[in-house]
Design brief:
The chain has seven helices and six strands; from the N terminus they run αββαααβαβββαα. The chain is of the alpha+beta class. It has a six-stranded antiparallel beta sheet. The protein is globular.
């Protein structure tokens, strides 16, 4: 691939993110949405414009895939930890999918070169069939629930 002397434009970056099959959500340093790709719009049921500036946890509310307990905003958790979270499974609480499907979620802080965290990026994809099958096993559910006891 030939090197270009000019950096990639923001329009080109947006087009690349829109081409991904997984949902990409980007928040600012307060945990508010700055960007959704097309897959994130479909998953959340919100347009970029409607989601912009709203808390990420409101745009994509998630719950534990074990007991449906609502999860704290992953953007806020990631910002507080200053480290990546996941991948792990969670259940969608809202959105156009009435089945509240299980998704795989990863979150990471976005850092500038000096190391300061300027926001977060969340990647959300459909849980694999193997994960869904494993999570439906009664022994796994009992084991997972008993860990917290």
């Amino acid at each position: 691939m030939a090197k270009s002397s000019s950096p990639v434009s923001s329009g080109e970056v947006q087009a690349m993110l829109d081409a991904l099959p997984d949902a990409v959500l980007i928040s600012d340093s307060a945990g508010n949405v700055e960007f959704l790709n097309r897959a994130a719009e479909q998953l959340s049921g919100h347009t970029r414009e409607a989601a912009s500036g709203r808390p990420l946890g409101d745009v994509l509310p998630l719950a534990s895939d074990v007991d449906d307990t609502p999860l704290e905003s992953l953007a806020i958790r990631c910002l507080r930890a200053g480290a990546s979270l996941g991948p792990f499974e969670a259940r969608l609480l809202d959105g156009p999918d009435p089945a509240r499907r299980v998704v795989d979620v990863s979150a990471a802080p976005i850092r500038i070169r000096a190391g300061a965290v300027t926001g977060t990026i969340l990647i959300v994809g459909a849980a694999t069939q193997a994960h869904r099958w494993c999570n439906s096993c009664p022994t796994r559910r009992r084991t997972t629930r008993s860990r917290g006891s």
